[in-house]
Amino acid sequence: MKKRRYLLAVVAALALPLLVSCGKKAESAETSKATESAVSMAAAETSSSASMSTTGESKEEQETMGYQTIDQDTAREMMKQDDGHIILDVRTKEEYDSGHIPGAVLLPNEEINGTRPEILKDLDQPIFIYCRSGHRAGLAAEKLSKLGYRKVYNFGGVMTWKGELVK
Q: Angle at Cα 59 formed by Cα 55 and Cα 60, nearest 5°?
């Protein structure tokens, strides 16, 4: 999807000088307007793809799927305001043991399948998910939302976590 949008933007940008210089004077204003419109549409599509998640969904798609990708500062603030949440580390046990966010519960991404995990009983409980870089957290968030969890937040990876880690 990103490639198609990028290609559209490149084609529109390359076509602009060609269309403007090759037409008659009467047609050139009309062509110029059409080209400008195509370029702005391509630019809008390209900029909207900047809000894509690690799994390729836009923010709007994530919201309808039941999860959102948020930054770590937002996650930290939301965690302060809600004490009924769970922090889910979806890395391997070895990664978890090497250092994890205080209060985080281990549930490796590979263990999230077609059944609801026992540790996640409440479908409306806020679930904050992280991994090492954010990729597995996005995959886990998608799986959990498909299982019916409604407040799932992917906040990226522990590599960029500014807070404390415990072993």
A: 120
What predicted TM-score, i.e. pTM, was given to this entire model? 0.63
By C-alpha distance, which of 131, 147, 144, 58 is closest to 96?
131
Yes or no: say if 140 and 129 are a contact pair by the CB < 8 Å rule: yes
Indicate the Cα dihedral angle 99, 102, 108, 112, nearest 10°.
-170
- The torsion angles phi and psi of 164, rounded to 5 degrees, stand at -75, 150
pLDDT digits (tens, 9 = 90+) for 122-156: 999 999 999 999 999 999 999 999 999 999 999 99
Yes or no: say if 99 and 149 are a contact pair by the CB < 8 Å rule.
Answer: no
Q: Name residue, tokens 């886990």.
A: 140
Strand pairing partners for 129?
Answer: 88, 154
Backbone angles phi, psi at 141, to 5 degrees: -60, -40
Residue reference for tokens 């799927």: 65
How many whole angstroms separate alpha carbon 106 and alpha carbon 119? Answer: 10
Model pLDDT for residues 41-89, shown as the tens digit of each residue: 433 333 333 344 444 555 555 444 579 999 999 999 999 998 899 999 9
